[in-house]
Amino acid sequence: GKQLSKVAGQNAVNYLTPLLSSWGADLNSGFYYSADLHGILGFDIGLKASAVFVKDEDKVYDFIMPDQLKDSKTGLTLSVLNGDYDKIIKGAPTAVGTKTSIDVKGKKGLFLNQTIFTTPPGYDLKYVPLLVPQASIGLPLGLEVIGRFIPPTSVGDAGKVNFIGFGLRHNIDQYIPLIPVNISVHFMTQKLTLSDNNDKKILSATGTAYGVEVSKSLALVTLYGGFQFEKSTWDIEPYSFNNPESGSTIQIEGFSVDGKNKSRFHGGLRFLLLFINIHADYSFSEHPVATAGVGISFR
Q1: Sequence-ordered list of residues with C-beta below 8 angstroms from that of 101, at least 6 positions apart, any chain
Q2: Which of 1, 20, 50, 105 to pair with 216, CA 20 to 30 A apart?
Q3: What backbone phi and psi angles, to 5 degrees, belong to 18?
């Protein structure tokens, strides 16, 4: 049981990492659409939708089988050392992979060509989306505050989600006379928590980002782009599952997943129609991200 829990834990890391890492990249997206900050008490409120495009290499992983398995029907124990089955199952789908499971077959004796284990299926995702609300307000001294917030909200059987983020931007071009573009810097930190319906934490995520952005307004259109350093981490709490081979309950230790995105370049377009703000951009990074936003804006 202890050995199986370790194996299951590592498989869980490999299975979930592409999904959680993609959500982490989404989390660190869509902070701004211009380097021209709001004036004092100018503000905007809107929704930001981001989507990470899933790469083929993120769709599969090597599933590691335990050294021994006990067949619940016969009570017999199968062993890798005896050559009863393969240790490594290549091409198992991750959470973003196909919905087709891989059946692990016995290699000899009573279990020859019999299915002794089935890897978990994926969700067949072409992209990993995330939708977050955001508001910002201008302050004196060329500062702007960004806020992201979702109060504790029920998501049915999945439990309850809570999300909060805080950011600060500062205008840099105010220190550079006659510069023809707007330049600002930003810092953002966020936290998302998912709990079960009994308020027991299931997982939590943190995202941190800081960078510089440049923009140029042309009538109703603004061109913008920038560079950003970022980090995201997902902490999965300890959990238990029923092992179908032995009929016993296995306790799995918690684990953490760090997002692959460490930095990004990106560029986009923003349209302002009266006070309606629409923008979209694309990020070039380990996990490429497309982001779009819509909202109301008063400068």
Answers
A1: 93, 118, 119, 120, 121
A2: 50
A3: -60, -35
Distances (CA, A) of 78 to 6, 86, 247: 18, 11, 15
Nearest C-alpha neighbor of 291 from the set 52, 95, 50: 50
Burial class (CB in 10 A: 0-12, 13-18, 19+), 118: exposed
pTM: 0.88
Q: Which of 139, 195, 133, 200 is nearest to 165 (CA)?
A: 133
Residue with tokens 């840099």: 172
- Copy the structure tokens of residue 178: 């006659």
Residue 104 in tokens: 């692990």
Q: What is the pLDDT of residues 226-280, one digit of tens each?
A: 999 999 999 998 876 665 555 566 677 788 999 999 999 999 999 999 899 999 9
pLDDT, one tens digit per residue, over 62-112 is: 999 988 888 777 888 899 999 999 999 999 999 999 999 899 999 988 889
Q: What is the dihedral of CA 31, 34, 35, 40, to 10 degrees?
A: -90
Q: State the Cα torsion 48-51-52-54 to the nearest 10°.
A: 170
Residues facing residue 186 across a β-bridge: 169, 211
d(CA 45, CA 294): 9
